[in-house]
Amino acid sequence: EAGVVQSPRYKIIEKKQPVAFWCNPISGHNTLYWYRQNLGQGPELLIRYENEEAVDDSQLPKDRFSAERLKGVDSTLKIQPAELGDSAVYLCASSLETVYNEQFFGPGTRLTVL
Amino acid sequence: GQNIDQPTEMTATEGAIVQINCTYQTSGFNGLFWYQQHAGEAPTFLSYNVLDGLEEKGRFSSFLSRSKGYSYLLLKELQMKDSASYLCAPRGTDKLIFGTGTRLQVFP
Asked: Residue A75 has what pLDDT?
């Protein structure tokens, strides 16, 4: 069974440029999460989807971040414009049903903003 | 408020036993996860406790005391490959809250 797929694995951009990350969850997992992990810190939830509905986006900086999961399967997280402080690893995870189940993480996208 | 406290770093010797403690305060509580994360890799699931007591899984065990807001992860017969960060993640009302992680270094 394929795990959570993310692309790209690495991205280097200059500040003020846009960037997008893509995630394909494990087949059959209807809950999808985007996390941001800064160096030496634990993952911090940005947004959680149940199917195509964003049920928790309270930690998403909405002035520059956006996300979508149009068909309730794969998802895209976008930053526009990127700032220096956005440099981090962006992790996607998925789980069966809701938060009451184990989350499976993808390998992450390491973003560097210069 | 929500707060998770675990040691930043620990060291141990191959073959030894190490206990990583975690204390937490969350809005609501629905169980606690432990994840392992090797440098540059994604977190992987180790254990889950929802009731008080000890859960054993091979070389790894996890303990939970809900009344004390306390959990620990016990690693036995340490191997070099156990060098990683260990993340304590209590589940609040509707989300996991991850601690900063404990970086464990295992020496020969």
From this structure: 97
Q: Is the model's pLDDT at B93 over the cut of 90?
A: no
- Cβ of B95 within 8 Å of Cβ of A45? The answer is yes
Instruction: State what percent of residues in chain B have pLDDT above 90.
Output: 84
Q: Which two tokens stand for residue A42?
A: 């634990």
CB B78 within 8 A of CB B23: no
Burial of B51 (0-12, 13-18, 19+ CB in 10 A): exposed
| B54, B107 contact by CB (below 8 A) | no
Which residues in chain A have their CB less than 8 angstroms from residue B95's CB? 45, 48, 56, 99
| Beta strands B102-107; B9-13: pairing state | parallel
Question: Cα(A36)–Cα(B48) distance, rounded to whole angstroms?
Answer: 22
